[in-house]
Amino acid sequence: MEVCASETALVFPSRPPFEHDHVLPLSHLDTDRNLHVSFRYVRAYTSTAASNHPSDPFRVISAALSDALVYYYPFTGSLRRRSDDRLELFCAAGKAVPFVRAAADCSLESVNYLDEPDRYFVDQLVPDPRPEEGLVTPFVLQLTVFACGGYCLGASIHHAMCDGLGATQFFNAVAELARGASRISVEPVWERGSLLGPREPPRVEVPFEEVLCFEKGSSPYGESSEAVARECFHVRDGCLDRYKALLLEKSGVSFTTFEALGAFLWRARVKASGVPGHEKVKFAYSINIRKLVKPPLPLGYWGNGCVPMYVQLSAKELIENPIWETAKLIKKSKSNATDEYARSFIDFQELNYAKGITAGKGVSGFTDWRHLGHSTVDFGWGGPVTVLPLSRHLLGSVEPCFFLPYSSAKAGNKDGFKVLITLPEIALHAFRQEMEKFTSEQFGLPRL
Fold it and tell me: pTM for this one?
């Protein structure tokens, strides 16, 4: 299985979106050091047949992208550091978005529609800029056509530009134009400094210093030579229902899938990684604040609109406590999601940014992609059958966990969902053993 790139086209806005070079400010959520990374993901589409469109998706999407960049011209800009080390976006006339055309010598079916991806193959489907390249060119696309006629659209987007919801808003705009719309239905809103800027004077009502660290001059993700592996694990509905029923019986509390399964996975990965008992470990996830803040963010706001939430325990507590107690802590942490929490996080960034805020060590990042609306991105041949994240860096974690739906191209995969785990290779065997406790039909449920 090989992927060969044939050209890199530069896609310019179809008409000049502005007259003068200028700088756009970013919000304090955009400039959070944990977001000084590019996030990468790929959408897979099965066919370009049976459509009124021309059969060349590269040409169709290039033209729609060109029109969309009139509205979303910041994607043609470059990120640069200010004197205080925060990022800002410099927009100059005549800039473009690189769009790579590639081909794969296999069918999507032969690679299982990327449902259980081969690590080395899928990494060829998405551009992977080095950190400084990601600042200069924060948005790069790659379209790979498969031998079967299907294609994948891979994107690398610097996280300071937007989060996953903001990126989906943009791709929906491109898709609308590709399907023949004369204009986009949701106008983008920038105004990042005013809508999510610090208060005057800033005040912090949440003890973030208990979970965040000050490490001036260091990267939140550091450099590690440790080999890591990416693997999908299957979560069947029956196992999950029995597990959640047992937690309800033991605790008297009803848990969501994210709370219940998150607690199990967190404990399993910490146990498999052999973290010393006295060390602090953190469960990290994001809360969407678009409707939470007062006033709510406008519909077209496409910057980072999530704040991190943390649950912290010692490794010994996490492994030895009943798992429903951990699930309770995750559930309880959601009650912190308020306007005050979000504003305090922004103000904490304002007051302490120069100290080098990171999430520290022992972070396990979790995110749920099952209901994010990725299937709406239809360029005229139907929505994607698979959406797959490739990023290793999430919420200060170098070992992220994603809850993902099965590929819709496979009719038999309607039972449950999959969990994409990134772990050091030396810990993966022990983690598999923990997961076997969850999925084993013989034992039914994990030892709790």
Answer: 0.93
Handedness of CA 366, 371, 376, 378 (dihedral sign): positive
Q: CA quadruple 366, 370, 372, 374: dihedral positive or negative? A: positive
Quick check: 405 and 292 in contact, CB under 8 A?
A: no
Specify whether the backbone of 197 is left (phi greater than 0), alpha (psi in -120 to 50) or beta: beta
Active site residue 378: yes
The H or E element that residue 45 is part of is strand 38-45
Peptide bond preceding 295: is omega within 30 degrees of 0, i.e. cis?
A: yes
The CA distance from 267 to 290, in Å, is 31
153 DSSP β-pair partners: 43, 143
Measured in whole angstroms, the distance separating CA 199 from the mean position of its chain's CA atoms is: 28
* Number of residues assigned to the chain: 448
Number of C-beta neighbours around residue 392 at 10 A = 17
Q: Which two tokens stand for residue 101?
A: 């055309």
Q: What is the pLDDT of residues 107-154, one digit of tens each?
A: 999 999 998 777 789 999 999 999 999 999 999 999 999 999 999 999
According to DSSP, residue 75 is labeled G
Residue 311 CA, chain-centre distance (Å), reads: 19
The CA R_g of the chain, rounded to the nearest whole Å, is: 22
Query: Residue 64 belongs to what H/E stretch?
Result: helix 57-71
286 near 35, Cβ under 8 Å? no
Q: Is 374 designated active site?
A: no
DSSP E strands, 146-254: 151-158, 213-214, 228-235
Q: What is the pLDDT of residues 274-308, one digit of tens each?
A: 999 999 999 999 999 999 999 999 999 999 999 99
Q: Residue 389 belongs to what H/E stretch? A: strand 386-389
Please give the Cα distance from 159 to 26 (Å, whole number): 11
Catalytic: which of 36, 159, 374, 393?
159
Of the listed 85, 123, 128, 378, which one is catalytic?
378
Section 239-254 average pLDDT: 93
The answer to whether the beta carbons of residues 11 and 99 sit under 8 Å apart is yes
- CA gap 197, 345 in Å, rounded: 11
The span from the CA of 172 to the CA of 186, in Å, is 9
Q: Which amino acid is at 397?
A: S
> What torsion, rounded to 10 degrees, do the Cα atoms 412, 123, 286, 134 define?
-150
Q: Mean pLDDT in the chain?
A: 91
Q: Tell me: the pLDDT tens digits for 59-99?
A: 999 999 999 999 999 999 999 999 999 999 999 999 999 99
